[in-house]
């Protein structure tokens, strides 16, 4: 998932979550009780409302702590080499930050981002999340705005990715 969003001074930490960061998909984030609708208690579970949207998201964060986070690798394109046309396009579109992600990543903030962005089964995916109490939008329009390359579509038209997702 591409998540470029400037989180400057979120919780006193300056960080760019523009990394194409992924969480190891090997483990399920839902327990058998959650899948089957079981409950351990009739009382609402407590959670840290400054960090999480709900108790389920806090539990998901705990599951994510057990997983490895895959950071994107940086790469260099020789401007005079075989891929000089690609380097030129990246330069024109000002995508330098995309091919050179940050060296230092706050892994807890990444886990928080994903824990709050994934919805419960049956809920629509909203392209919103919360990190350190800040609500963030990471939909197509916001990503294009951050990249300085807004995608303009005619009314009722869908981009190729949305068409693909709708077919799946």
Write the layout of secondary structure elements.
Layout: E1 22-23, H1 32-36, H2 55-65, E2 69-70, H3 84-92, H4 96-99, H5 107-117, E3 128-131, E4 134-137, H6 140-147, H7 160-167
Antiparallel strand pairs: 1-2, 3-4
Helix pairs in contact: 2-5
Overall mean pLDDT score?
74
Tell me the strand percentage band: 5-15%
Count of DSSP helices?
7
Structural class estimated from helices and strands? mainly alpha
Task: Domain count, please report it.
Answer: 1
Could you give the order of the helices and strands?
A: EHHEHHHEEHH
- Spatial ordering of strands, largest sheet: 1-2
Q: How far is the first residue's CA from the last residue's CA?
A: 17 Å
Largest sheet: 2 strands, antiparallel
Uncertain parts: 1-21, 26-36
C-alpha geometry:
globular
From the alpha carbons, calculate the radius of gyration and give it in angstroms.
Answer: 19 Å
Query: Percent of residues in helical segments?
Result: 25-40%
Please report the total strand number as a whole number.
Answer: 4
């Amino acid at each position: 998932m591409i998540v470029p969003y400037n989180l400057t001074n979120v919780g006193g930490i300056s960080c760019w979550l523009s990394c194409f960061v992924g969480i190891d998909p090997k483990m399920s984030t839902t327990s058998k009780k959650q899948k089957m609708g079981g409950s351990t208690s009739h009382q609402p579970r407590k959670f840290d409302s400054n960090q999480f949207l709900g108790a389920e998201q806090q539990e998901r964060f705990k599951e994510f702590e057990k997983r490895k986070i895959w950071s994107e690798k940086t790469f260099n394109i020789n401007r005079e080499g075989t891929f000089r046309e690609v380097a030129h396009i990246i330069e024109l579109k000002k995508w330098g930050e995309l091919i050179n992600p940050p060296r230092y990543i706050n892994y807890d903030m990444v886990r928080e981002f994903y824990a709050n962005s994934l919805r419960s089964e049956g809920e629509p995916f909203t392209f919103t999340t919360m990190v350190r109490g800040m609500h963030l939008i990471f939909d197509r329009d916001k990503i294009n705005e951050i990249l300085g390359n807004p995608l303009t579509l005619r009314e009722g038209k869908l981009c190729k990715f949305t068409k693909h997702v709708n077919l799946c």
